[in-house]
Every structure is written in C-alpha cells, then in structure tokens.
Fold this protein.
Amino acid sequence: MKRLLPIAAALVFLSACEREDREFRPSPVAGGGDAAISLSSIAPGPGPAETRGDTGKAYEENAYHLSEGKRLFAWFNCKGCHANGGGGSGPALMDDRWIYGGEFQNIVQSIREGRPNGMPSFRGKIPDELIMQIAAYVRSMGRHVPMDAAPGRNDDLMPRPSEHRLPSSPAVTRGTVPPSGQAPQ
Amino acid sequence: MRCCRPALLTAPLLLTACSGWQSSLDPQGPQADFLAGLFWVFTAALTAVWLLTMAALIVALLRRQSARTEPLELDPRAERGMARAVGAAAALTLLVIVALTVVSYGAQRALFSGGEAPLTLQVKGHQWWWEVTYEDPLPSRQFTTANEIHVPVGQPVNIKLKSADVIHSFWVPNLAGKMDAIPGRENRLVLQASKEGVFRGQCAEFCGWQHAHMGITVVAHSLEDFARWRESQISAAEPPDDPVRKRGMQIFLSKPCVMCHQIRGTPAAGKVAPDLTHIGSRLHIAAGTLPNGRGNLAAWIVDAQGIKPGAHMPLIKLEAEEVEPLARYLEGLK
Ligand SMILES: [Cu+2]
C-alpha cells in the first residue's frame, strides 16, 4: 500500500510527457488536400461544394498552428488592411460581427477566394495548410479557441492583449451584418 | 595496448577541434588573433595555478607529522610559517586575477576600438537563416543576399547585427568573437580576414527548432575578386534563355514562392525569406544545411520540412514535372 502512492504519483507525472503534435509536414502529394474546405458552390476552381467537416478543430486546438498563423498574418500583410485585428481599410476581425460568417470554414473561404468589396483572393498564393493556420489564428482573436492553445505573445504594439489573455466574450458566431455586407454570398 | 584504445581513438578527435574552418584556435584575422592570444594566456596561467595547487596538496599529503604529545599545543614557529604561506598564496591569487583582468580588458579595448571600416554590412538573424545587406551610399548599389558573406582580405568589415524575431548570436570563430543579435537593438562587430579562405559561422544562441541548422559561410577574397563578386551581386537576375529554365521561371512566378522570396529583375518581391536573386552562386542552401546544387535544390523545394523540420519554408505542392525546371532555373541564377 505504501509503495502504491509513489507509483501513482509517478504515473501522474508521466502524463505530462504527452506533448502536442507539431505537424510540420503535410502530405506532399500535389492535388490532394487542395480545396478540402470549399463551401459555397460559387467557389471558383474545382472542388466539391459543401464539405462542412470539423477540420478546423485540428488547427484551432493546436498551439503550434495558431502561433504559425499569427506569424503568417504579419508575413502575408493581412495587417496592412486589417491592422492587428482591429480593422483598417478592411473590417475588424477581433469582434463578433462577421459579414461572411465567423466559422472556421467561412474564414478559410474569405481568405482563399477573396470577398467582393476589396478582400483579395489568396488562392494559389498561400498554400492551403497555411491558410488554415491563419484562419485558426483569426478565430483566436475573437477568443474562439481554447485558452491554453491561443498565442501568448505580442511582438508589436497591439490594440489588445495577446490572444490568450483576451477577456472571454460570448462566442457569437453570427453578429449582425451591416448593409454593405449584404453582398451576394 | 587494449587498455588505451579508447584514449588513443579519442585524442585525435579532440585535436581536430583545434584547426579547420570553424575553430577559434585557428585564428585567421586580427580580432580572432587577439582572442586566441587571450585564450592561450589564460590557459597557461590557469594551468600553472592548477599545477602549483596540486603540487602543494601532494606535498601536504606526503609530509609526515611527528606525533605530538599535547594535541592542543601550538608551535609558534610552525604557525608563523603557515601564516606566511597562506598570505603569500592569497597575494599571488590576487595578483593573477588582477593581471588576467588587465590583459582581458586590454584585448577588449583593442577589439572594440576599430575606427570607420570601408565596408559595412547589416546582418539580420531570422528563424533560421541570416539576411545580409551590403550598405552603400548609393541606394542602387545596395543589395541583399542570405547566409553567405563575402569580405575583402585585409580590410576591416563593420557588421551591424539585428534580429527579426528572437535573440540569435553571430559567431564566426576563425574571424571574431560572438555577438548577440537582439530584437529591437543594433549590435556591432568588426571582423577582418587576413588570408583568403572559406570560414563557417554558426548561430550561438539557442533560437528554436532549427538553431543547429543556422550556419553562415564567410568567403574571404582578394580585393579584385571581392569587387567582381560585389558587382555581380548588385546586378538583377539575368532572364533565362533556354526553354526549360524559362518554364522554371514561369513556375516560380505562378506559385506561392513569390509571396516570400525576392528575385530582383522579376515580379517576385517577397521580403520574408532569403533573397534568391543569385542563389546559384552560393556554396550552400538553407543556412549551411546542404551543399548547393541542382539535386539539393530540388530536394529542398520538394521536401524542405523533411530536411529542416519546422523551418518557415512550407511544403508547396508541385507536379512531378515541375520540380526539375524549377531547380534548373534556380541553379542558373548565378
Ligand atoms: Cu540560434
């Protein structure tokens, strides 16, 4: 009985050895995987319409993907139009108001296909895996990802605390849509 | 013989560390000479101290004390002798420390007193590669390259160190000491090569997954060769003339490559990854990870994450027949 306690304690410590996977290397086959998330039937290019899987989870719950997304958000100059999420010439991304939907898939599509009032399309310019990392990061700005996975560091001046310290707001995924956003969907 | 085999085998291994293209004990420039000199002075002084201490210890252990009748009784003569010995040892210690401090301070002053150097470079550490910009008063003669520095022999080169993300440390042991590259700050370092040669440098501050694969190559040329190299680097990339390389260029420009990489003379103007304008002229790719060549370029493009897991170059899905033209195009960017 006395021995059992240390053994049990050791087992508890061992559970800490499990580590989050960092998936550096998606399958290198051309073609496969592209357009895995394609929602609207008006999406240009090939790919099945309406695949509402929960593929977003793998990205949204993984700290590595989220922090990569944060870096890429700056690398691909999303900041130029959306600032650090507060909005500039493009709409704010950290609030709960979405023109084209705030679900993971909607955001992937906003980035990949572009949106009519000035959001450029990044299809073919950013590989799909990276688009998903960026989309997961965009979701983290509105506090829609687990706190222990959200990025914890701001390198620049930001209008807000880093993502894992954001106040938890109610996860409203479809806010009111401004009239300008009643664009064809 | 058998007993000594491991020792015999390891001794040459240790010795190999004393020369070569990445060793501070094989100095190839005045700054590195200073440091190597300091190293030997310190080693000699500290070895002497160690030997003296050990000798004193052995003498003390071997000397027989005659048994005393009254253990608590002090012998004033012996006491005085011991006090003198301890006093002398303390004074000697102080002297050695002060002397080494003065020597070290003098060498530091010599290292950092360099006046204006004719050539100034900015070296910026990125996870996990080095961006190098050759400054020039004429903006059109300023250019950027990556992971490889060329310097003229016999001239001091002023290096401004910066970082794009985390702390890195720039260390080319044959030419100079370490200097940290810190985000938001500019550190300076002067190095000079006194002979032609190729030297390897390494990031010396742990900076993440691929810290070990963050090398830099320094090539020291004669003045004329250096001027020739500089002119060729200033020029934009030559447009390809054969059909395969033309196709390679089209592939490059139609893929995500252009979002990150720059090739001057083409629309590719990404600024977050190594400049590829003259990638074909470099000795290595991916910060010293692979020797340059068409095969390795192709391998890198197809599977950068297999070669350098975690590097910020993503997997880009290519068709099999797109790889070779792309590799040929890059190889030809001399
Ligand atoms: Cu490093």
